[in-house]
Design a protein that fits this description.
It holds the Pfam family Endonuclease_NS. The protein is an alpha+beta fold. It has helices spanning 5-9, 121-126, 130-134, 153-157, 170-174, 176-191, 238-241, 265-275, 297-300, and strands spanning 24-25, 45-47, 53-59, 62-70, 75-83, 97-98, 112-113, 139-143, 165-169, 196-211, 214-228, 246-252, 261-263, 278-283.
Length: 303
């Protein structure tokens, strides 16, 4: 029945038209094309905290990806995006941006570059700002949706918002995690034949970056990720083929003991059920990324 939900909602969406320009939404379906970042148009289920904000990350008037954001911890719980085939080069000349919709509703809905001057306190209350990261030596701004998994300049620029980053230990960010992002980039480039959907998120244990004697930004304990690609090369080497259509990964955000562990999706979900504020219905991808069968049900038992 879940697959029919978007169809059932279509007649009802007309009453939400005033929300169509907003980026912080009640449901990712409220913005046209926002749900395109999600496998089967369905977000991860099981997240029960009603204080979390759903952001349709808009840049240059187009939705680019989606983020579930915690305004109290001032970090994303996860970002979900579609992988774009790319050569993997990194760009560092994009301006850092923030999400105005977390603090107020305007008619634009796009993320905005941080101003050079004063930023009203209400924005600091709702999200991280550049000053939160300016004096921390141990941590870097770690993308959940990394620019090297995107191809167009606009898609890449859209990853440079603080609502898409978390504090990552420098040695972890530039070492094991960057190597993993590159490994997945090469794997999906070479063996995914359709659209690849990726969800990357974090767990926390209460440690915070402090500024002016105030807790400001939560420091992740673990970083996790999973991809879903149902159309893949069936002739790929066995050690690659067993990692399709879906696979997960988990790593400690630490200076040492930070190696990245790949694992089946269900194994990752078991860990997250014990380490995230979720219920036992947690599911990262709709139907665990099992490709819908083209055969009618009465024939499926014959193959």
């Amino acid at each position: 029945m879940s697959m029919l939900t978007p169809l059932v909602l279509i007649p009802v969406l007309a009453c939400f038209l005033p929300l169509m320009s907003a980026t912080v939404v009640q449901d990712f379906n409220h913005i046209e094309r926002c749900k395109d970042s999600l496998y089967m148009g369905t977000p991860p289920r099981g997240f029960t905290d009603t204080k979390l904000k759903r952001i349709c990350q808009r840049y240059a008037d187009r939705p680019r990806y989606v983020t579930l954001y915690d305004p109290q911890k001032r970090i994303p719980v996860y970002s979900a995006y579609t992988f774009k085939k790319t050569e993997g080069d990194r760009r560092v000349d994009y301006p850092w941006m923030y999400e105005p919709q977390l603090a107020e509703v305007d008619g634009n809905g796009n993320m905005q570059p941080f101003p050079t001057g004063y930023l009203h306190m209400k924005f600091e209350d709702s999200q991280a700002v550049l000053d939160d990261y300016s004096d921390v030596v141990l941590y870097e701004r770690g993308h959940l949706n990394p620019d090297q998994h995107q191809s167009t300049p606009h898609d890449r620029a859209a990853t440079y918002t603080l609502t898409n980053v978390v504090p990552e230990i420098r040695e972890f960010n530039i070492g094991p995690w960057r190597e993993y992002e590159e490994r997945i980039r090469v794997r999906l480039n070479n063996f995914c034949r359709g659209t690849a959907y990726i969800v990357t998120g974090v767990t926390t244990r209460g440690n915070m970056i402090r500024r002016n004697n105030q807790d400001r930004v939560a420091i992740p304990e673990d970083v996790w990720s999973a991809y879903c690609c149902t159309e893949y090369d069936r002739n790929a080497p066995h050690d690659v083929r067993i990692r399709f259509p879906t696979y997960g990964v988990l790593a400690k955000n630490a200076k040492e003991g930070n190696s990245v562990h790949e694992m089946p999706l269900q194994e990752l979900e078991i860990f997250l059920k014990s380490n995230l504020d979720v219920d036992q219905n947690l599911q990262i991808f709709y139907d665990n990324c099992i490709s819908p069968s083209p055969l009618p049900l009465y024939l499926q038992h014959t193959i």
